[in-house]
Design brief:
Elements lengths: L11 E4 L2 E11 L7 E8 L5 E7 L5 E3 L2 E11 L2 E5 L6 E4 L1 H4 L11 E7 L2 E6 L3 E8 L13 E6 L4 E5 L7 E5 L5 E4 L1
Antiparallel strand pairs: 1-2, 1-5, 2-3, 3-4, 6-7, 6-9, 7-8, 9-10, 11-12, 11-14, 12-13, 14-15
Length: 185
């Protein structure tokens, strides 16, 4: 049986009789005290997060997780709807669970979905996505002395810094981890 030292981000565990997903964990050894694991967990039942301290040798119950590829279909009011490309089953997801990923979601975008006990608990974007530029001001002639950047707006509504030669209607590759321009697509 695993101990608290084995806790990793994204794991599902049983805590106080409820299934919770580990959002962050750190192993700490303060001065002359015993080592412990500080973890931030989010309850699946209530959706609330809590900071919990485990003894480093404390036993934990790990819940099996299922990961599969899904596609973003559409936005239904506030919720985001994802579908399984093999079975065409749909899953509705709250904006809180989607988080900042909403800035990179376009129709048919492929994401990795993690399920615990048939409930979607986490979505993960690919490392980069291709988006269309909807607004790009013209670069001013003579502005190319150094690596000059301009602010452009993409189809999802986010603003990124890009080189002066990028024009409206072009497709660009954006890093989903940093939100920065990578290259033309």
């Amino acid at each position: 049986m695993p101990t608290a030292n084995d806790l990793r981000k994204g794991m599902a565990i049983i805590y106080n009789g409820d299934v919770a997903v580990v959002q962050d964990s750190q192993h700490r050894t303060p001065g002359n005290l015993r080592a412990f694991v500080q973890a931030t967990i989010r309850s699946l039942k209530t959706g609330k997060s809590a900071d919990v301290r485990f003894s480093s040798t404390e036993r934990i119950d790990v819940v099996p997780m299922i990961t599969k590829k899904m596609e973003f279909s559409y936005k239904d009011g506030e919720d985001y709807v994802f579908s399984d490309p093999e079975t065409y089953e749909t899953v509705s997801v709250t904006p809180e669970l989607v988080g900042d990923a909403k800035n990179y979601l376009v129709e048919n975008a492929v994401i990795t979905a993690t399920f615990v006990e048939d409930k979607l608990v986490q979505i993960e974007l690919p490392s980069s996505v291709i988006l269309t530029v909807t607004e790009a001001p013209e670069g001013i002639r003579g502005d190319s002395a150094n690596n000059v950047q301009k602010s452009i707006i993409l189809e999802t509504g986010i603003s990124v810094q890009a080189p002066l030669f990028i024009k409206t209607g072009e497709k660009i590759k954006v890093d989903t981890r940093t939100g920065k321009y990578m290259e033309r697509a």
